[in-house]
Design goal:
Helix content is about 50%, strand content about 15%. By secondary structure, it is an alpha+beta fold. The longest helix has 12 residues, at about 5-15. The chain is globular.
Length: about 100
Amino acid sequence: MSDVQQRIDSIVKGNRVVLFMKGTSQFPMCGFSGRAVQVLKACGLEDFTTVNVLEDEAIRQGIKDYANWPTIPQLYIKGEFVGGSDIMMEMFQSGELQQMLTAQ
């Protein structure tokens, strides 16, 4: 595992909910990242970790390889890859995302 992959792995496994996104939760830099933040907040989640991939090109590329998923944002809950903003939206609408976030 490369240094970048190890950094990503420690972020993913060291935080309960992590969103790799463009920008920050206060200032998303793309519509998909903004929607992902809105979905998490609509689930009642205020305290989650975000990683701005625009600040680190190695992480921006590395996260795509880490999950074998070509797009950003990417959501991880309890160390598991959940998906991007479209999947998050579908899961939110079905109630599945809320269940994942409230499960201990």
